[in-house]
Here is the input.
Amino acid sequence: MHKISIIGAGVVGTAMGYLLKRSRYSIVGIASRKKESVKKAVEFIGEGEISTDPVSAAKKADIVFITTPDSAIEEVCKKVSSEGGFKKGTFVFHMSGALSSEILSSARMEGAKVGSIHPLQSLADVGKAVKNIPGSYFCVEGDEDAVVMAKEIVSALGGKEITIGAERKTLYHAGASVASNFFVATIRFGLELLEAAGIKREDSLKALMPLIKGTVENIENLGIPKALTGPISRGDTGIIEDHLKAIKRGKAERVGLYTELGRYTVKVAVEKGTLKEADAEKILSLFDKYDKCHRRKETSYAHNR
Here is the structure.
């Protein structure tokens, strides 16, 4: 049975400890700067020695997860490495989506095998993380032996792995951020427009949820671009111009966001095959027209300040 220590007792570390214990791994140590955080994590996981010293925690294990905030991963790894915390052959993983396994190079120099395992999932709190992580896709990269071990861990969690090179990790994370974070921001933009139409915020979100869920189901079942619907997909220039006029009458700065999202949506609609090239050009020209008006107003406002 592999012995695992977790350095960092936040949402990800606590959830992973719980899930790995459930998958019959032995959690031997949990470390964090704050003793209260470690106590809380150990209580939730049901196993693991409490420590505020990452070095002593790492020494107990043959697999070490560094689940601190991204900005602290490299520093923690260097500290543990410099104080002999990693035995030769120890597997050292971090779970950042944005950073590659190269930030664990200090552990590699001590004979450890390093890698990263990132669940392609939104982890808002421990409860949600425990529910959402199993069955998710995981991005895996690192040393050859570490990747093999990472795949075993992902399989134990009921997940599926995506393997990439370390040099492509940032681009991978950008794609995940766009799909998740920009999705939330785009819905926020939609809520603003519904509010401008006189609908209360709390009612707006409730009203949009069936539409949002239906769209996600369409993406899952039909894929992209087939899941795309709406006036751009249909080439309905009149409706699109009505949108722009209404938005312009409210907060004109929203025009730029609508047109920028619209331009990319035009590409998706052309790919779907429901928007002909000629209609696509008309819509893009319409966006250009309203963008120019918006920029002129912004310039005029700046000169008059």
Notes: The chain has 13 helices and eight strands. Strands lie at 3-7, 26-31, 49-51, 63-66, 91-94, 113-119, 137-142, 160-163.
